[in-house]
Amino acid sequence: MDTAKPTTRLIFPRKSLASCVRAYIVRSTVEAPLASAQDRYNHFPATPHCSLSFYMEGEADVVEPADAPQDRIRVVFCGPQTRPLVTYNPGPVRIFMVMFYPQVLHALCGVDVSAWVDRWASVEQALGAQWQDLAESILADPDPDNALALLEVFLEPRWQAARPGGAGAAAGDWVRHLAAQVADTALGRGARNVERRIKARAGQPMRKLLRLQRAEHSFFEARQEFMSGKAVWSDIAARGGYADQAHLCREARAITGHTPGELARMMASADERYWIYRVWT
Asked: Which CATH number covers residue 100?
């Protein structure tokens, strides 16, 4: 009996790019195609990060939100997402994904990230001709390791020239690091001016960024409890700074479409639709 499973890897960037790239994700079902159509759905949570997804083989359709554009794009730039996203792969796929801190695209390309919240487009439309040339080079070789090497060679000199204030985002609390950068450079340093600059760089207001960051930290800290099925949600809520368990559940549902308990059960069952949660935590 064939017991091969899809290949999924989470890869962290080299140290010099740690304040630029949050992580790389490689996903392939080419060597172990998913027979069940149900397993070919992909559930992604809301995220403050921007991403590039290279479809080296195969393709994807957006299922939710239902009003999303249905163009199939081989290299997709995705801005910050304030709601869960569901896609469907009609057949086997090989994907190389890059998760960027949102302010990186502002620094590298002058992108107003607030204009890309809950949107996606081709890499050329979003980031320009140089990025399109990079995309074509990566698509010419379907090996994800070679793709990673090409991308880091492309990013390294550009990020060293563009990054503001050093590698502080690598410390993990990139949201407050961003706020400190903006407050230190904004003319007048008024609250509205700072908030406007934060939105241009990260796409969303500070309160929303902190909300998403808090949820991610809570999921990370409780991952063993999630996987073991022994999570005490009231304790997790208290550790995360939520008002109560119901507050945690509302936040989790808004970000993922599910309560923490539902996510824990689906992750423990190795449900292929939620592979991104398993690799990320």
From this structure: 2.60.120.10
Question: Any idea which residue has 């994700």 for tokens?
Answer: 25
Distances in whole angstroms, Cα of residue 182 to Cα of each of 17, 92, 108, 132, 207: 20, 43, 16, 30, 15
| pTM greater than 0.90 (yes/no) | no
Nearest to 112 by CA among 210, 21, 199, 19: 199
- Residue 93 has phi, psi (to 5 degrees) of -135, 155
Minimal CA–CA distance to 50: which of 112, 135, 8? Answer: 112
Q: Is residue 132 packed enough to be buried (19+ CB in 10 Å), middle (13-18) or exposed (0-12)?
A: middle
Which has more confidence, 269 or 58? Answer: 58
Structural domain for 74, as ranges: 7-162
- 180 and 123 in a single domain? The answer is no
**How many domains is the chain partitioned into structurally?**
3
At 21, list the tokens.
Answer: 């790239």
